[in-house]
Each structure stands twice: as C-alpha cells, then as structure tokens.
Amino acid sequence: MHKEANEVxxxxxxxxxxxxxxxxxxxxxxxxxxxxxxxxxxxSGCGKSxxxxxxxxxxxIQGGDIRYRxxxxxxxxxxxxxxxxxxxxxxxxYELFSHMTVIENILLGPVKVQKRDKNEVMEQAxxxxxxxxxxxxxxxxxxxxxxxxxxxxAIVRALCMNPEIMLFDEVTASLDxxxxxxxxxxxxxxxxxxxxxxxxxxxxxxxxxxADKIVFIDKGKICEISDPDxxxxxxxxxxxxxxxNKFQY
Amino acid sequence: xQNLGINxxxxxxxxxxxxxxxxxxxxxxxxxxxxxxxLGIVLGVVWTSxxxxxxxxxxxxxxxxxxxxxxxxxxxxxxGVTTVLNIDLSGEFxxxxxxxxxxxxxxxxxxRGALESLPKHQIESGKxxxxxxxxxxxxxxxxxxVRRMLPGAINLxxxxxxxxSLVVLIGVIDVIKxxxxxxxxxxxxxxxxxxxxxxxxxxxxFVICYPLSVxxxxxxxxxxx
Lengths: 249, 225
Prior knowledge:
heterodimer; A: Rossmann fold; 9 helices; 10 strands; B: MetI-like fold; 8 helices
C-alpha cells in the first residue's frame, strides 16, 4: 500500500535462535521498510512468534544481527527500554494490567516512561479510543470488557507510545470468532494510515487484504517472501502450497 | 456488691495498669508488623531471584523461624546472645527484634508467593511499554501482588499480635502479665477475679484482631468488585 517509501527501518540479518538444543530460527533475513506491512505466515511452532519476540528483546538471540534504523540491537549496551518505545508490541493474550482502568493502562507508558505531559497524552488517548469505538469504556476495568474490547485497548495502549513499528503476535488467536473482525478492522485502519507493521496471524484472508509482503516461515527458516496476491494464487514453494491447502475445505 | 467480681477493675489503678500493659503489647506488635512487612517485601522481591543460591538462603532463613518455636528464639536472644556479647537489652527490645525477624521471614514468603503467582504476560506487557525493572515492580507487580497477598498478610498480623503473649516469659510486663498481677493481689477479696480479668483480655484481643480481619475482607471485596 505504501511502497513509495524505501527507507529501511528494521533489518534482520542471519538471525539464529535456539532454545537449549532446539533450533527455532535459522538464518532469517528480512528487511522492513517504513510504511510497509509485512505479514508472517507459517504452521504452528514454525518460529514466527519467536521472531517477533526477538525483535522486541523478549528473547535473546544466539547469532546474526537485528538493526533498527541501522543501529544494532545485538550490542550489549542496547537500551531495550528505549527501543521498546519505538517498537510497540501487542500479544495474543490481551494482557491489560488488571488493577488499572482502561485509561490508566493507556497512560502508564507515555506518562511514567516517556515523561510526557498527562493532559496531552489524555487527549491523544481519547482520540485513539474514539477511533476504536471504546471512548465510553475508558474508566472500566479490564475484567468488565470482552476479549475483543481488551485487545483493541491493548492496541491503543501500544499506539499511545507513538511507536514507529508495531508488532502483532497472533492478536486474534484467542478471541471468539465474532470478535475477530473488530480487532482486524483496527489493524487494517492502521495500515491505511501508513503504520509500519509486522503481523503474525492465522487469518489468511486478512493477511491477503492487509499485507504488502507475505513472509512464509517453516521449521525456523524463511521459505518464501512474496507479494500477497502471488503468494495466495501461485505460491513458489511446495511447503507454502501444502500450508495453504490445509486451510481449504 | 462485694461479690461482684467486675469491681476488680475499679480498684486502685487496675484499669490504667491494664491499659499500660496493653500499650506494651500493642507497641511490640505494631513495630514488628510494620518493620517486618517492609523488610518482608524487600525479602520477597529478592527471593524471586533466579539464583539458586539466593533462594536457598531465603528458604533457610524462613525455615529457621518455622521450625524453631518463637519462645526459643526469645530465650536465645534474651538470655543467650546478651550474655555471649555481654550487652544488656531490655525484654521489650528483644521481643521487637525477634518478632520483626519472624514477621519479615513469613511476609517474605507471602510476597514471594504472590509475585510468582502473577501471570508472566503481565511482565511482558509491562516490558513492551518500556518499563524498567523498578518500574515493573512499582507500577505492575507490587500493586497486583498486594491484592493477592492481603489475606495471608492480615492473617500473619493477627498471629503476631496473639503470639506477643509469649513475651511475659522474658520478663516483659505486657497486658497478660498485668492481668496476672491483678488476679494475684485480689485473690482474697475477689475470688472470681481470674474470670473477669481473663475475660477482659479475651475481649481485648478480639477488639484488636477483629478489625484487621474486617479490613482485609473489605479490601478484598473492593478489589474484586
């Protein structure tokens, strides 16, 4: 959708990751341009979630390099607290902080971490909440919300930090089917605004609609990187073909 | 009127003396609970360390208070340590030390349990918005852990209040000791004094401990509702 910008934001080179003796990611190379929406597909356990977690410093890597704005994130002196303000992440388990109201959840990062002015952040939060249709729930506690609502709030919480890149890790995987749509619509809206995103999902038709680029991973390796239409109609590899077939009845 | 045992409280300074004794009990319990809880929170956070070595030290510290009776601790500190180190400590001071160390050990275990029971995602979500180690504890983990550990902590506080009754045995004149003295001195005139005095103590302990359990229930309801 936004192919005109060619500035590389995130670059992954020869990334290698293992848990004990099990190799999870093997020689992963990928670069993400500003404004690009990259969707990562692949069978369960192929390492796609782990890849996202590496990009946010939640997992240590054993080899290769990750560069954000040409600065290596593998150095020992990387300040992850700083980096995470630029690379936002939303998880599968929509974990809002259960002891805080919606608005407190959203304000915590911008006010306490980024030391921004509370009123200014409040205004931004209100706008974002309005955009996801949840302005009237700002004083609710997470337990009073549905899964879909919680996940939309989690997205707002991440957005309010003004990140440059957003990582979505199977954000609809634990939602009831009727709530998937409302969350995907929010992400689609972000794509239209030019947000740079890396999305791991199992929603294939959504992937096709939102992606600028599809990355197919199997057994810890990138098998293919394609244009979405091409990937869904003429996958280059047999494994991708096999994967797509499983979703058809 | 002479047979009415309740008059025992009106004789001389009896009521004031009981009140003074109560103050000693309350002082020991209160100081130990407050300092013990603060130390316990620090201990609990340290206890969640990944280092096996640190965890073992914390565990041994707790077990020393679980296995050895508090009475023995009071005796060791009051009669043993003071003579070995050749220092003079008041019974009340020793009591405060022992109860504080005990409170810290038990509180540490409660805090550790509460922290470890928190879902791992809460930590990751906190990290994802850029919180530092201390920020995570201050804004996310401690506030959530407090809610989980409250029943245990209040239970500990009431246990500590009740266990202060042991300090009599290292010569502290607490509310129970005063009660015994009153019973002794009124034995002839008021034969039923023990019923009235101990009955009064019964009510006193209830008055101190009951509000604590009401408080804990209120807070739990507030945080759950």
